Amino acid sequence: MRYSNFSLLRFFPYLVLIIFTAPLFAVLASLFGVYSENWIHLFEYVLFDYVNTTITLVIGVSVLVFLIGTTTAWIVTNYDFVGRNVFEWALILPLAMPPYVMAYTFTGLFDPYGDANTLIRDFFQLEPDTVVFPNIRNVYGAIIVFSFTLYPYVYLVCRSAFLNQSKSMKEAARILGLSQIQVFYSLALPIARPAVIGGLVLAIMETLSDFGAVDHFAIQTFTTGIFRTWYGMYDLNTAMQLASFLLLTIGILFLVERSARTRQNYTTNNSSFSPQSDLKLTGINSLIAFSICFLPLLIGFILPILELVQWAYQSNLAFFNQQFFVTAFNTLSLALCSGVICAYIALLINFSSRVAPNQAINKLSFLLSIGYTIPGLILAVGLVQLYLSIDNSVLQGSRLFLTGSLVGLVLAYVIKTYASANSSIESGYERLSKSLDSSARVLGSGSWTLLRKIHMPLLKTSIFTSILLVMSDVVKELPATLILRPFNFDTLAVSTYIYAAEERMYQAAAPAIAIVVVGLIPIILLTKMIRESRVSASSDD
Amino acid sequence: MTSVLKIEQLSYSYTGSNRVLDNLELEIQAGERIGLLGPSGCGKSTLLRLIAGLEKPDGGSITILGNLVSGHRAMVSPENRKIGLVVQEKALFPHMSVRDNIAFGIRKEKRKKTVVANLLEMLKITSLAEKFPHEISGGEQQRVALARSIAPAPKLLMLDEPFSALDQSLKNELYSEISKVLIEKQITILLVTHDRNEAKILTDRQLEIADLQKK
Fold first, then answer.
1. Which of B21, B56, B95 would best serve as a mutation to test chain A binding (most A beta carbons within 10 A)?
2. ipTM here
3. Nearest CB to B55 within list A166, A180, A276
């Protein structure tokens, strides 16, 4: 049903689109600007290293994430073994661990005088200079860190793809001569290919976006390069030119991911055949399945948590001081503020496309969600450029309104996390029958009444979920906060970063634990969905 | 005459529920076409899954061509039993063309091209060869599923309510064509259905599953 007098709502999506994509254009515009001496220096001496390390990182992470994600998903969806019910949801726990927090705990564990080395030296009474574990402050260490925190992206999509694959199809393949393992790699995986690609691309984008972990390991990638160009050489323009190249790469990945997502329907091949219980494993086979699922959980979640707890214990919980609470309050206020704004924008845009359908905006709406693909650092670089020009032109440089302000920071969060908010509200709207709108209309309610009295109360859970999802993303966001925050304004992520940079790990424990705890919120929501999906999958059968 | 399938004292129950099959005995000779009848829930499909090796029996034994495949000493995996199974939901591989689906069970064999071409022609689906499962109708999908199961020349072909999702006119059309193929290929058949008419058209001998179990 169309509402005719609705011009404000009709233009709202365009307005949001302009604001959301402006920083991207600001960054990309630098490509057509002047190339300074710094650019020539970068090009001649370090650009090759950036490209080389970034490619090594991406290839390594892709291979490991693929192996871990697909194998664990296959095992938990097809076999019945000790701990399967727990692994099914626990395998996504590493998503709560931002790669930079894991990087900090890993150096704390595996550096020559780290806890893991010390523990083994003490236990086996080895010489004090014995180093058991190899150095992890390099690109290979980073590959491990990213792979074990990001594999859940592949695990999640594969698990749902495998659950949707018809059991009778897999049984037909067995009867036609494939072994159980052959069914996995020559049937289940090829069918799940679009889902796997989608998950892999998300993991790759996260890897490319990271700043905290690679900075801690002192690896030269694009993001550390952009940061150094700006903060070391004070050359914003060259930093933006460098960022443009990373952005173009991510743009391509974004398109790949979108096309993979649209092809996912192809994998759905539900069966009404009644399958019996999954293949039951006993003895050594059960142990192997258990170990394959336990290892990623151990490395990606249990070890880092143990190390954080150990730091907290070592500092006698002294970190629960006023500074910690101020930082936590800052963070949560920012997160809540961004969450509410994001949810409200998503609500208005989805409402607008429901009551005033518009072909053009429907086609462009995916661009609104582009923020999640943009590395926080690049977004920050683009926004700083925009803020400076707005402050200089509108306020004629008399004072800085946007630059280094909370408003500017919240806008960055809103752009970066809008996709999370939108996904929840969009799916909420999909479940809302359009006949409700017609009934309300016939009963005399105008558009705003429809939104306030009918849609909002019915979408309560979706709105709440979207605020939570945004909050958890905001709490984790490091590089954008680092650059855009007002002077002396710390968040949990920033204070973890600063402590870790100064190797004051005990103090880093408190904010890091807080980040992980908040990060667990969407994970708990997801695990609930995973449990329910299993129940509904088996009741479908 | 050689015995293709011999089942002795076969018992099976789902976890936490009553016994579905109890002391079942059945023997099928080469070239025989048997129809197995019974109401839904009587264990017909379960019996086929046990023969295929997709389930493990609680007791008794299954012998295929003289080799013990299920019993307390043995459990041969489905891929090594050399049998065929066609189910109601066809279970075609969605990412493969009709041709590749049919060739799946004989993908390593040299004669694959001829066999596939032959089956495509016999089942009148040559024009669909390059299409994907979602591009063809339910009846056509069932022809492909049948061709795919016949291609490896199984010693025993089991059909589990293969036509129950199709409408009557389509069924009638398929009956005559398929029984022609089955007779021509001289395949040993075990058909499970609740439709007595279907069993009469497609098989030589019809048995009630209840009669196969010792009271």
1. B95
2. 0.79
3. A276
